[in-house]
Amino acid sequence: MNLIIDIGNNSTKYFLFNGDDIILRGRRSGVSLDFIEEYATQFDIDKTIVSSVIELKEKQREQIMGACSNVTWFDGSTPMPIKIDYRTPHTLGTDRMAAAIGAMAKAPGRDLLIIDAGTAITIDFVDKAGHFKGGNISPGVKMRLTALHKLTDRLPLVNKEGETPSLGYDTETAIRSGVIRGICHEIEGYIAETKGKYPEVLVFLTGGDEKTLNNNIKSRIFADRFLVAKGLNIILENLS
Predict the structure, then answer these.
(1) Per annotation, catalytic residue among 95, 111, 116, 124
(2) What confidence tier does 91 reach under pLDDT thresholds 50, 70, 90?
(3) What is the mean pLDDT of the chain?
(4) Domain range spanning residue 194?
(5) Residue 95 annotated among the catalytic residues of the structure
(6) What's the number of domains the chain is made of?
(7) What's the helix, strand, coil split of the chain in %, to 5?
């Protein structure tokens, strides 16, 4: 079995794969690795891959190495079934590469637009020849809601859960609709622009806010919340 550890800006996600199937999964706030020893003791883990968008402390690395054997620290130098055309591959987020690989596995030989809606929203394009051409980054749902509250005197901090009418009928719905519907219009614009150049492009949506946005996007998309984890598992399998 493979242990997948995906460390983001605000949480740590972990998955246990048996082949292509997710057997167990979990999530911790921040960089919390308290699950590792339990998993290592309870399950027969063959390989582990760690993807992190933040710089891990030496103590955290030692904790992983102490509990797991055959650990791969995923970065731009790791062998991957994708060609990176990004001008600065060393700055490209590992989550973006993994999501692209996960999407390629689902639709090989197709032009792909991959939208990862997490702390930040990334929109990346992979052509049918398997070249990662690049993409854009913008603030995610929580970041936008927080910025509206912190950078103004009177706007409240609004939860993302709730009604999103086309026109807000009070300050709370005006903020929530403005953020969530605004992001969806942003995504729809990228989809329309990409389809103008690549009519047969397939669109994948993943990330923690996948469900929040999916209900408000009109274009046809393929939603898979665990695209990054699946891509990391593919990378790990290809190393053997």
Answers:
(1) 95
(2) very high
(3) 93
(4) 76-240
(5) yes
(6) 2
(7) 35, 25, 35
